[in-house]
Amino acid sequence: xxxxxxxxxxxxxxxxxxxxxxxxxxxxxxxxxxxxxxxxxxxxxxxxxxxxxxxxxxxxxxxxxxxxxxxxxxxxxxxxxxxxxxxxxxxxxxxxxxxxxxxxxxxxxxxxxxxxxxxxxxxxxxxxxxxxxxxxxxxxxxxxxxxxxxxxxxxxxxxxxxxxxxxxxxxxxxxxxxxxxxxxxxxxxxxxxxxxxxxxxxxxxxxxxxxxxxxxxxxxxxxxxxxxxxxxxxxxxxxxxxxxxxxxxxxxxxxxxxxxxxxxxxxxxxxxxxxxxxxxxxxxxxxxxxxxxxxxxxxx
Length: 300
Fold this sequence. Notes:
- Pfam families: 3D.
- This is 3D domain-containing protein.
- InterPro entries: 3D_dom (IPR010611), RlpA-like_sf (IPR036908).
- One of its GO terms (molecular function) is hydrolase activity, hydrolyzing O-glycosyl compounds.
- The protein is of the alpha+beta class and 300 residues long.
- It has helices at residues 2-42, 147-156, 268-277; strands at residues 113-120, 132-135, 141-145, 158-160, 166-172, 187-192, 213-215, 226-228, 246-251, 260-264, 284-288.
- Among the domains are: 2-45; 132-192, no CATH class.
- 20% of the residues lie in helices and 18% in strands.
- It has a 6-stranded mixed beta barrel with strand order 1-10-7-9-8-11.
- A hairpin with a 5-residue loop joins strand 2 and strand 3.
- The radius of gyration is 25 Å and the shape is globular.
């Protein structure tokens, strides 16, 4: 009798242990599955589709950066590439709503919060064999250029020819154009008056200004909105003056989607300088229509 009782007790204890072990294993598997799902949600869209717990970190929370061609630690391959739209309406791409107007509020993400920060500039054609051709919107040849310049301007959207002329994005999907190796786009261009558009033209059809213009997703920040970025206060202008943190949202890019602000530096050297002082993807606060920036207003 005593032997049967002891046997029953041992079997009961073993059953509890097995049930408890299964319960722990199931909990661990669930946690791992949840973490994997969060990581997958980031996908190729980076922070745009990231769940709240995986929001971008501020500069104080990120270690180091990787320079101009590389990005900060949160960078995903290919996200740095942006393509200006320079005064043209979007054609139904992500976040596209056509040409925005100042003060127009989109139905996208909240206006104020932490944004991904990146930089873009205005390439100039150097010396070398002119083995590539830029075409206008009718596929008429516009200019023979170096391959290096072609491959840079098709990413940045505007650039300065060796002759001194300025070219800017006209439209994409041009059958006559060479494929841009970094974006896969086929871009046509137009000539601009270099006196009026010394650094190219933005999505509002106005001249863009180095270290004042930012490209945004107009579903999140309406075009024409002054914005204050406190993390960039004190960074240098080309003449050594310190920046006040005020910018104007007057450009777009098909790779600038969601919570992202792309600062126009105007020059690859300045891109390198700012990227060293405040690397891309550290994360910045963007405050639209801050009173400190009211003087910028809409450019004419």
